[in-house]
Design a protein that fits this description.
The structure holds two protein chains of two kinds. Chain A has one domain (2-84). Helix content of chain A is 79%, strand content 5%. Chain A contains four helices and two strands. In chain A, strands 1-2 form a two-stranded antiparallel ribbon. In chain A, 34% of the residues are buried. By secondary structure, chain B is α+β, with helices and mostly antiparallel strands. Chain B has helices at residues 9-35, 37-111, 113-117; strands spanning 122-129, 138-141, 154-157, 160-168, 173-177, 184-189, 194-202, 205-210, 221-224, 233-235, 239-240, 246-251, 261-265. In chain B, strands 1-2-5-4-3-13 form a six-stranded antiparallel beta barrel. In chain B, a hairpin with a 2-residue loop joins strand 3 and strand 4 (160-168). Classes of the chains: A mainly alpha, B alpha+beta. The A-B interface holds A 16, 19-20, 41, 44, 48-49, 51-53, 56-58, 63-64, 67-68, 71, 74-75, 85 and B 5, 19, 22-23, 26, 29-30, 33-34, 37, 40-41, 44-45, 48, 51-52, 55.
């Protein structure tokens, strides 16, 4: 129960950050939180929102760059965590 | 010896399926988004705009309240400064008015205006013209019977007597200026008030015979013998005339040519 509350709290912080703060702050927070929380799928949502709100769906010539980057990040973190623990 | 949790094949399968679903979902979003960006991005952008507006107003309200409090404090300080300035200006103006009044009364005393102006027997009259054929011997004033002017009232400028009211009409009067040619009047000359017979030499000037060449009389004031309470004119340097007689000449300092206002005093 406690871990659910903590997760919801971190989600709320990330939700505010992704709409109000620059993308690099949100990404940094997302990386940190994904290291702390198991199966942190919210990182995909962060990528999608950064793409949509801050870049209009396309970063340079790459569409949904942050969504793809966050997906890769998710699997990387998953893999790292699997190796560590 | 490393500890590694046991992972059975079932959970491995679940993990694989979950990851596959994630990759598929992301791929689907990217594909749809590439094909129709608005379909994916639009709703998120609208939500983001609404959300930031709500957050911004919620955050800015306390700041607005705080800044309005600061503004109020600033306005109150300005108000205090302005009130102080206003009070000092009021006291400055009051002091100025007082000093101007004092100067005015000093000047009035100097000009002799308020000696008679305060009297109920006097009236200020404007000079409105000169009658024809009497260029500077008479003046017309704007007061007449209606204002209570009577014949032989005195016309005074400052402390100097210049003439007498001659004809009185309803709304105007004529004043005969002293010192016209042929006028013969008695004067008191100087501090000693020596009575001297003067003969008119033109407007507001007289000439008279004198006993000796004493120049100390020069600059002394003269008064008409009939009205010794008013000044008439100043004595000029003593001269000798053709018959080896000394004569003095006295003239009023009032310039009849530029006369605009006189005080009429009841006889």
């Amino acid at each position: 129960m406690k871990s659910v509350i903590i997760r919801l709290g971190l989600d709320a912080i990330l939700f505010l950050a992704v709409f109000m703060l620059p993308w690099w702050v949100s990404i940094s927070l997302a990386i940190i939180f994904s290291m702390l929380v198991v199966n942190y799928l919210e990182i995909l949502f962060v990528g999608l929102v950064i793409d949509s709100v801050q870049f209009g769906g396309q970063v340079g010539s790459v569409p949904f760059f942050f969504l793809i980057f966050c997906t890769v990040l998710y699997f990387a973190v998953l893999s790292v965590k699997k190796r560590i623990f | 010896m490393h500890y590694r949790p046991r992972v059975n094949s079932r959970s491995q399968n679940f993990s694989f399926i979950k990851n596959a679903i994630i990759v598929f979902a992301v791929g689907l979003v990217v594909a749809v988004g590439t094909f129709d960006k608005g379909f994916v991005v639009g709703p998120i952008q609208n939500f983001g705009l609404a959300f930031s507006a709500v957050i911004t107003s919620a955050v800015s309200k306390p700041f607005n309240l705080f800044s309005s409090l600061l503004e109020g404090e600033k306005l109150a300080a300005n108000n205090r400064v302005l009130n102080d300035q206003y009070n000092s200006l009021v006291s400055y103006c009051a002091a100025e008015v007082e000093s101007l009044n004092a100067r005015l009364s000093e000047m009035e005393i100097g000009m002799g205006r308020n000696e008679f102006a305060s009297s109920s027997n006097s009236k200020a009259a404007y000079v409105i013209g000169k009658p024809p054929f009497a260029p500077y011997g008479k003046i017309i004033i704007d007061l007449g019977k209606a204002s209570g002017i009577e014949q032989n009232d005195l016309a005074v400028v400052g402390r100097f007597l210049i003439g007498k009211v001659e004809d009185v009409f309803d709304k105007h009067s004529t004043v005969r200026i002293f010192g016209q040619k042929g006028d013969k009047d008695l004067f008191q000359v100087g501090e000693k008030r020596i009575v001297q017979k003067g003969e008119g030499k033109g407007s507001l000037s007289y000439v008279g015979e004198y006993l000796d060449a004493d120049q100390s009389i020069v600059g002394e004031m003269t008064r008409l013998n009939d009205y010794p309470e008013y000044l008439f004119g100043k004595v000029m340097p003593v001269e000798t005339n053709a018959g080896n007689k000394y004569e003095i000449f006295w003239s009023s300092p009032v310039n009849v040519f530029e006369l605009a206002e006189v005080t009429i005093i009841k006889k």
